[in-house]
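Contributing new complexes? Match this layout with pyridoxal-5'-phosphate.
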Amino acid sequence: MRNIQETNRGHRNNSRSRPRTKLMSAENQIIYLDNNSSTRIDPEVLEEMMPFLTERYGNPSGSHRFGAQVKDATKLAHERLAALLGCEPTEVVFTSCGTESDNTALHSALQMTPARRHIVTTAVEHNAVLNYCQAAAKNGCDVTIVEVDEEGNLDVAEIEQAIRPDTAVVSVMWANNETGVIFPLEEISAVCREKGVVFHTDAVQAVGKTKINLAEQSFQFLALSGHKLHAPKGVGALYVNRNSKFHPLVIGGPQENGRRAGTDNVASIVGLGKAAEIAASTLEEENTQVRALRDRFETELRAQLDDVVINGDAENRLPNTSNLAFLGVDAQAILIKLDQAGICCSLGSSCTTGAVEPSHVLRAMHMTNERARSSLRFSFGRYNTEAELDRVLEILPRIVNTLRQLSPLSA
Ligand SMILES: *Cc1c(COP(=O)(O)O)cnc(C)c1O
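Output block (do not edit by hand):
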């Protein structure tokens, strides 16, 4: 899992630099460092989608050739996504989002074995998993939440110890959306296989950023989301292992081999297929260019500023993610100033009820509230440039220094 070197697949397309140049000049106002939150649609993805939003509007389930052509396009999307994941096209189920994929996997696992009413998951999962588990707990399930250490790492032995004879499913994310920390999934899934327990992974942040080959894994389920890999919002997919029993969440028509009812969101499915094809050819870029930008950001920022610390394991994380604590400074104040300068990033805390709450992920890492409240997440992507980074490295230290001078709490 830690080996995120990509083999040279040989179909990297040089024309890809063209749309990018056009793209950047069209929007030189915004520097977007929030790619774990959502990504921009790749122009080639949009181009493939357009016919299905205009003249190719037939229902893929239709019994005429007009619909059959649309069906062919969704079939190609299954093939492209399967190629990225290293699985069979029939193992791909398109859904409406990453959240639905996570919910479906957990729902299916619980339905498959009604006698088993126990779920094992981690304290740092996305709410798509955590809140589903909370709802399941209200319906009589037991949920064991495994903690992480101060670096955000998980101990496989603790997962193993948490599994009981009545465990229906173990759900562990591949990589964390806030810190980028990567979990040892191969070992965890091996433990689950040994114990005969269904294993699901929320791989929304991993797909397109790390190499995935499901043929080498023993997962029952894997969830992903279009808008985290340069496809549109509102489309996701669930990998369902061909040997796994399955119970749909959305029930109705026979779409997606009877595993997800509802007329296909054709344009978005086509878009996700194309995004998957592009992701296969840009994996190397994620691990070289994007990683280099992120590393330069951290190195130069920390050379300019004292008391900037990385939240989460600095080595064992996604190549694009930088979660930093600016000790002694209110991150919200930094975020507002960055926003005024056209730089987008995310808070390490959320302001859901009026009061600023440290994120459940940072809290799970046993971080003080002060440190969590001084934390920001910067997530890079393939459209970011060195020139943008120059600008951020000029603006951000100034903002932090100004705020530190104002604040009597300077660390
Ligand atoms: C974004 C995200 C989701 C939810 O995906 P949606 O398509 O927005 O529903 C789930 N898990 C993780 C880790 C995410 O980052």
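Reviewers usually confirm one structural detail per submission. For this one: Residues 97-99, 126, 128, 173, 177, 202, 204-205, 225, 227-228, 236 surround pyridoxal-5'-phosphate (CB under 6 Å).
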